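Q: Convert this sequence to structure tokens.
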Amino acid sequence: MPPHHALLGGHGTVERATKDETALELLVHGVGGTTPEDMLGDPRTVRITGDDTAAVFRRAEDADAERRPDDYRGKPVPEAYVWCNLTSGNGSRALWLLLLPFMVVNLAHWMRPTSRRRRRLVRAYGLLVRLIGLTLTVLLTAAACEVALDLTAWQCAGTPDCSADRAWLGFLATDEAGNGGWWSQPGRRLGLAALAPAALTGLLWYLSRRTWSAYESQQPLPHHPDPEEETHRSALARPGFWYGRRLVARLRAAHTAAGLLTVAAAVGAAAARHDRRPGGPALLDALGWTLEAALAAGGVVIVWVVCRRGRSENRLDRRLDKALVRRLPQAALAVLVLTLLYAGVSRPGWQSAGRLPGDATFGGIALVQGLLVIGLAAVAHALYRSSPAPRTALRGLAGPAVAMLSCALGGVMSGGGAQRVADWLDGAHGSIAGPPVLLTWQASVIPPLLVVVALLCAWLGARTVRIKRRERAQVPLDYPGEPRDPERTRRIAATRARASLTDRAPRIVGTVSAVTLLLGAGALVGAWLTGKVPARAAQGTPDVVEGAAETAQALGSWLIGFGFILFVTWGRRAYKDPSARRTIGILWDVGTFWPRAAHPFAPPCYAERAVPDLTWRMAAWTRATSATGGRLVISGHSQGSVLAAAAAWQLRPSVRKRVALLTYGSPLERLYGRWFPAHFGPAALSSLHREVDCWRNLHRATDPIGGPIGLHGDCGPQVDRAALKDPLAYGRTEAHPLPAPILGHGGYQNDPAFAEERARLLARLKAAVPSPRPAAGEAVTPAPADPPDTAG
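A:
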């Protein structure tokens, strides 16, 4: 081909890029993070652009590559985008582990099935997930109230046998005759204890606002979709997808207000119940009714705000909601202060006895959560039936299953905290009533759930053995002519068998979620019908039943407390141990890719910083046609391939055509395509394949995360290369005199296939097209077929 072959482009005549022009290879690492030195294979690196949180690096010798184009003829300039500090940068982020239920329910929002014509169902799906997220905020705030108000201030401080061993409760305690200091009156005790859950709500508000300013307020690359773009492209191509500033601000206001009103309700309900006794003061009774009316009105407003609308993705929505929404936390705080003043009024003769009405609170939350999950399952099933995809996890029910698990995690944290604090306060005295009966019932169903999990693990083990036997027969066929080594064959076969277990995850999640829903419903019915803990409710039944109930209650109480301690211990260890912090960082790499669409207190979405970073960098390089030729290969490993695809979707079509995509160890189809079909399903990946210049994917049978893309049909050349050999050599050879390691998910760049595919992509890049011009006057496409999740 002549070096200057003229082509007629969309805006005029331009010259064709040749293999002698400079190209850029942009490397994006995967989960767990790495260093630019490791990515670039050079101990001397310099930062080209970015900051201490996320940046682009080059080798020191390549820092001025644009000024020396003759030195880079026929080879790319390597750059490394390092984003690991977005998720695991400092020790304080390890405490995000305590926000796990919020993160999980946010994942459920993005797991909706693909649907091209059911706009109302899409809105209903997002609405139901947001309501489940709201119940989680109320649940965990109620759990904090249970610990601080009910167990500590109401029960222990009001019981001399319990408070006698707690010197720090002395100024709140009462004696045998019910006498004590100024703070010993129940209303004042509750008001003081209410500061703890209120402070927790304030802390969540502060963290959410701080991360909102750092993540959701990052400006993406401005662009407008071209009219010729296909309507079935992924929603990740929409201009406002990675800019959730308005929605997170709205949800933050609503959830903060919900937490504060929950605290106010816990304090005010106890005082109002006392004032309604026969002969109670009429003025205080009227104040109690007024405050409860204010709480009910506040709850209605909060639900309305959450239901009002969802995400705005078709444009950059830089506005914030009106003052009514932004001032919700201040209004809720005012109601809380008034409630504390109301509860602090002197009420002679008022003594705390029994429990606060926690059973009704936790029972109502559990009932609402169960109904919402069932409703979400019905909507998801209808969406899936409208546009079924064979590879979709759980036939479209992955979102409801994960939402159910988020509720279960919230239950473990709330019930575990209450059980441990009750045991710590009461010790062996048995002088206080303890946590609500429902929490004990919920703890008692954990042993049966663990039996189900054990059976599933046994099934997985048996399946792994069968796959291992099959692979032991296949491994010699993949290495013909090699002398047999039974131990080597066994290790390779075992690695392949374990890697295949990833594809069984939907069945595990679905089964555990279904059993959790059934057992949770049984616990709710048992608590409401008997009003007693399981051991007492089983008294008078056959010995086998009574013994099983006692065992389940004791073991469940220990397990749920152990689960809560495990959460806290992991967070504390990760705060001090960098290696443990790195492990938890991997969890966030996978779980916080998606924007906060269902819960504002979830850990922040790092992609709202990473995707604009990559998009701006690629757009800047492709515009520099005169100096570089504008050719670019973005090379992503593991989670980095997901970021690379998301960034490519955000480019204008004219820029996207100048980009080649190289993915390896990629979960794009194996995990994201199955679990998030509306955004990474076959239609979305096929459109990406058609819109980028070229795309190649490398995978191994030993990789538990990455897999083939599996695109077929009319979307161009095959994306997947045949599965790479792993290990590269079966036995010792001249090229591999020492045993070659089984690489699994890592080491793709060490495989000769990586360099081969990169060279082919660089050689195949199509003609250079004009640099993208300003989008002024550019037509905007109609609303895409997959509508944004809006509720109004």
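The two ends are 56 Å apart (CA to CA).
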